[in-house]
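#struct-queue
[09:14] JT: dropping the first one here, sequence first, then the structure tokens:
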Amino acid sequence: MKVIKSATELSRALIQSSAFVPTMGALHAGHQSLIKKAREVSENVIVSVYVNPLQFENQEDLTSYPSSPRVDEELAAAAGATILWRPNQSELYPDGMTKISSGEVGAIYEGNRAGHFDGVLTVVHALFSNIKPTWAIFGEKDLQQLFLIRKMASEFFPAIKVLSGETFRESSGLALSSRNSRLSAENKNCATVVFRSLQAAQSQPAIAEMKREMLATLSSEPSFTLDYAEIIDDTTFDLAVEESRNKRAIIAGWINGIRLIDNMAMQNIRSASKVAAI
């Protein structure tokens, strides 16, 4: 794997047909699953590592975001990446930054963090402009992000095929996230309430019962502070109705100040996401 630190190097190394996995570093098995999916569609897999300040609501969260450069390189190479690029801000925005609006969907749920999705779309737009991949792969754990990136790509980069990778989970069901490194063993055990609540919702036949069971399970864990728990139609991000064919439960909240998000399709498929034996 070639590690690249400048846009000039990148332009020399780029091959016309490539698959792209953008990350903020602190790579784990979930990122590796996306890289492996990228390798399924292309022999040329580019991974970027850039902690995007535009999508953080406060400086403390940005400063405390985990970093593991050497491990990132090892994990990316082991999963099949051929190029790892660490851009800086001037390389991403050589002609100055033009912010991309995330619109109405970008202002709800995770969009309650001021400017979050505008920041996500702005940096992804810049990455796409530099790399011009054939495919780009994003995880389903960040469902709203995936929805908005697909919408943005269809408008600005219609030639790029945006693919999704299934949520990768610990054996307990906890969705893998770089922020999990800040959870103690006890916190991690408490955090499994999110997965259990999604399973409880999935076992129900109607939306009212799904939401009731989801909230009841979440409330059983006193250390979990709820932000939202809803059943949506994942093709529109509107609240689901009984006739919706793509119902999905979405949850966000905090344990010990660490934000957790997760989601699950409500098609009564008991194990649709990948689980790691870790």
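[09:21] JT: and here's the second one, same format:
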Amino acid sequence: MHGFSGFREIKLGRWTVLEYFEDVRRLLGAMGYRAFAPEVSPFDDPLARAAQWEEAIEKILVLTGAEKVHLVGHSQGGLDARVLVAPKGPPVYTPIGWLTGRGYAPYVASVTTIATPHFGSYIADAVERDVPGHKVAVRTLKRAMQIIAALIKRRPQNVDDAVKALTREFMLDGFNHIIQDAPGVRYYAVAGDPISDDAVAPLLRPTYELLNKQPPSEGGGPNDGLVTVESSLFGNGLPGDNGEAPPVAPHGRANWQALGVLQADHIAEVGLPLHLLRPNTYDHFAFFAGLAQVVDDAYTAKMTLRMDGQWERVAGVTPPRVGAPGVRV
């Protein structure tokens, strides 16, 4: 499930020039999994996008005959997944309109979010800052994005609500209170932190440095260029050497399992080849291949995620045969 401003693929005639989850579907297909990457509106609020994801997943269930899917959401795609799976309740009016869960949990086995702003993003706050000159420039840019995307996708777009939904105030005071986790669904979270400027795409270096300068109390700290590690992991830390889970940060969800932190920026996490010199420290193929096995009920090995995207299997645990059938979205 792609994020804000995302897409399935960009083509020139018959040729695919850019794919959001670069070659991941083909990799998982070679492993014996059925993997899909539908496309929804690049600019819209999570509730509107969740309805579009549900329509796409219904077609996948009919096509495959599967009873459930595993959802993997990058960035805003993770928020969409949460709305899709959350129990239905009385709609609550918010700054982006009415919001409630869609109750799709009976058809979902697990939700994995990658660099999803569960606590919102300071960058979205900066975009929405109420400064006269800044506000005029941002409004002009939003309108241009909305018109261009609407023409390309041939459906209305809502950039205003899409950005507002990513702010810290909306996520902490609204979204997280309304959108609750569904019983019976497993929840996993992954973060990104390139550690060094050298591993950050030039496009993201200004925001990467900005977030590193902000105190955690104001939404800053280690980040992937757009989302902090704390926000991505939903307030959960990684287990220590003694295996004990660290305390959950305020606003966090203890039932979410933090899988690890990738040494990758927000673009590289899904394999988008937009770096002038692609860092070789992170392998997105290794990450997604291992993730498929982590959420696969037929794969019983215990695995831990390294920053380079590689997974380490616990010694003495023997996995079952390779290529166990499954469905991945």
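[09:30] RK: nice, looked through the second one.
[09:31] RK: The chain is about 30% helix and 15% strand.
[09:31] JT: good to know. The longest helix spans residues 132-153.
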